[in-house]
Structure formats: structure tokens, C-alpha cells
Predict the 3D structure of the following.
Amino acid sequence: MKSITCIVGGGIAGLSLASFLDSPAVVLEKADRVGGLSRSYNMNGVAYDIGPHIIFSKNKTVLDLHTSMIQTAEIRRSNQIFYKGRYIKYPFENDLAALDPAERDYCLNEFLNNPYQHYKHQNMLQFFLKTFGEGITKTYLQPYNEKIWKFDPAMMDVQMVERIPKPPAEDVIKSAKGVKTEGYTHQLYFHYPQKGGFQSLVDKYRCQAEKMGHTIATGVQIESLKRSGHAWRICTNKGVFETGRLVNCSPVHEFMKYLEPPASVKNALEKMLYNSIHIVMVQVRKDLIGNHFALYLPEKDVIFHRLSKLNFLGDAYKLKNDGSTLMAEVTFRPNSHLSTLSVEQVKDSVIEGLERCNFIDRRDVLDVEVKTEKYAYVIYDLDHRSNVNTVLDWLLENEIHSSGRFAEFEYLNTDGVVERTMALAKRLSTTSCNVAASAAP
């Protein structure tokens, strides 16, 4: 009997990994359908994601793969920062002329005469000050990051932000004069499924995995996970699985509940921080946003940090009555004040924010619904790297591989996840596994 890889978690990580494996695999998914953070839902005929997600990658192999798996539309970004009632083209430093003249000069002067640029940065806030100067940092970057992360940037490390390039001085000077330049040109275009939301890519991965003979089991509740020699025995509500090759693609905080790690590993796990999210969908007869996809809002008196207009994604994402479908994102730390708000309070706060920004008239609201995800954003606090290494190293010592955003506890977009699963599949194909997996009903 051939060895079987047992994969816990049927999100994009688990399904893509299975589709890349050349030996039999079984994917165990707790929910009644696959997708994880890449699931899509339907609101009055409009598909929407937890995000929204886009299809984009600097890795041409991954990008070509995803755009060949399903039908996609190539879309030019139109993202704006909404600041004090003004629309500022994203990224902020490439449209300084849109600011009030005093703030424009403040941002430009502090960028060109930056006393922090020669210091070595040790946290996110220091990186912003060093790279962009005090003006851009305090006007936009600091308040926006405080809002999305619900964590002080001075207490976050630089793993996420070090990839951000320093903008050329000539571009910032031009932007202050009203000559708009394009920052992050590699992100200027993205792809999106022509219909069905991001779930269509998830479902395609599932289809490919099943065509290869792999098993995708949903509604699987793990009851216990025990080690016997080099084999793992997984007792579930749908039978017992025994395998010598185990991969976790589910949130590591949930997966570790089935194991008995030493105190040092438990302690590290407890210190690994994350944000949850409310996705608040608002359908209206009309809006005043214009033809933009995403708006970023640094103001603290508006509860959501980002607003997306799904009409921008194509005809399949428009209401039949020519109304608009808006997605507001509200992050919150578990056990924080925001986490105590009821669904109705969250809805009311979002509608209030939309009206305050003059994006909508409350009388035009057709429907509102909320989806809440426990695991949304990894927080890169100053101890993130050491804590994550402690946990993942212990899992690997016990022959458990990890892949996926919350399995690896890294802020990975879909393309980054797929890069990791491709690499893991190659490594697994070169290692032998002497214990065959079996499932008993």
C-alpha cells in the first residue's frame, strides 16, 4: 500500500499542497466546505470574499498557474486613501499635492530633510520614520497601521515592511507639485475571477486534487491525535486515520489543542498574537465613491480601515438594479473592547462611518450582513519570530510539517502560500514514508 500524506485543513494551503503531491493524500477539513480564509459567500447574487482577495504575484509561475486554472479579468488598480475628506491616490507619497498645502509641505520637507534616515531601524515605526520621514509617517502610515493592527507600530518588528522600497526623491517632489507618479508599479494590475469570487480558484484546486485521486473530506472533527513510533493516529468523527506523514494547514493555535507540547512551546504559542476581523457587507442603491476599488481610511473615528467596492471587479459583481456592494473591514484583537461589540453594533458603526465620510446615504441601504473570522491577520510583534520558531521547530521535530498563513503564522498572501506548498510538495516527494495511512469508519 502506498504511503498517504494526511493534511489537516482544507484552505488554499491544504488543497494546493494536495494538488502538487504525486503520492496519495487525504485532506481533513473541519468546516462543511473547503476554502478557509479564501472562501467566498453570496449576498443577493453577488459573490464576495473574506478580504477581498486578488490574483497577483511577482512569481510568474504562480501567476500563470492561477490565471490558467480559471477565467480571470485583468484589472488596473484604482486604490485611494481617504484622508480628511480628500481622495489621495495610493501610495500616499505619490500624491502629496492632494493634501492641504500645509500638510503637503510638512510631508515633503520631512522626507527631504530626514534626521532619521541614517539610523538603523529596529521596529516598524522606526522603519517608517527612516524611510519616509516624520510627515508621511505621522500623517498616514502610523495612524493607518495602528488602526489595522490594533497594535503600536513601535512594538512591531520589520518583517512585513522591510520589503517596501524607499520612494525616489524625484517622485515625491513631483507628487508635491501635482505631477502624479506611480508607486509600486509591479502592483498596478491584478487579476480576479470573472465570476464566483475567489472560491472559484479554491474549487479548482479541489477539483485538481480529486482528479489526482486524493480524498477531500469535509465536516471532519478531530477528537484526538496520538503518536505511535513514526506514525500518527488521528481519531475523528468520520473514522480513524493512521499516517506517517502529517502536514498541518490549519491555524496552529487550533491544531496544537490536539497535542501535548512542553511548557516552553505552550508559552511561545500563547504569545503569538493575531487579529480577528468583521467583514461588513453593505448593499446600497447608490454610492458616492466613484470608480475605485479600495479606499484606505486612517481616521480613528471611522471603525473600518478599508472599504472595497465590488462593482469594480466586473459585471458579475454588480447588483442587477445597478446598486453597489461595499465591503468594510473591521479588525479587532480577541478580548479587546471591539471584540465585545454585537453584530448589530458593528453594522450600525459601519453605516455611521459610511455616512460620516459621505460615501452613502443611509436611506439608500438595501441590505447589510456580517461575516466574522477568528484568524485574519498575524501580528508581527517584537517577539514574533522567536515564538513562531519555537513552535514550528517543535512540530517539525515531531515530524509534522506546517504550511499556510496561520499554520506557519506568517502574513502570506495566496501566491505566497502556493509558493510554500509547491516547495513543500517537492521536499515531501524526495523523502520516504514507511507508514501507510488507513481510514477506518
